[in-house]
Amino acid sequence: MSDSIATSPRPVSIVTVLAILGCFGLFLLVVYYGYSKNEQPAAYAVASEKLPDDMAWKATHASKTAALAELRANEHKKASAYSWVDQKAGVVQLPLSRAMELVVQENGVRK
Q: Is the CB of residue 58 less than 8 Å from the CB of residue 64?
């Protein structure tokens, strides 16, 4: 037989239980204030003149559409034009279609 003596578990003090619940409550409070204070107002809920410059395009549906159209036009212009990226290093920007032709020619020669 074994020589170990069976011991009954110690009762948990009320102070320990309250300390654990207090720490959990403090954690929930920190999480609540951490997430609720960092919310930015919805752009559509604020008048466009009160928005900062970087968010003014979000004010109305028309401003969003205009900003998107301007962005797409600028990107199309960049993708279909020749320009220098770094003239000293000899790096140029090519139209996308011309760049694809050059890649096909380069890879066709290697085979």
A: yes
Residue span of the structural domain in which 91 resides: 82-111
86 found inside a domain:
yes
Q: Is residue 50 part of a domain?
A: no
**Spatial CA neighbour of 49 closest among 34, 63, 36, 67:** 63
In a domain, 34, yes or no: no
6-61 pLDDT, tens per residue?
Answer: 777 788 899 999 999 999 999 999 998 887 766 655 555 556 666 676 777 777 78
Identify whether 87 is part of a domain. Answer: yes
**CA-only gyration radius of the chain, Å:** 33
Cα distance between residue 50 and residue 43, in whole Å? 10
> How many separate domains does the chain show?
1
Query: In angstroms, what CA-CA distances link 107 with 59, 72, 91, 111?
Result: 48, 31, 20, 7
Output the pTM of the full model.
Answer: 0.42
96-110 tens-digit pLDDT: 889 889 999 988 866
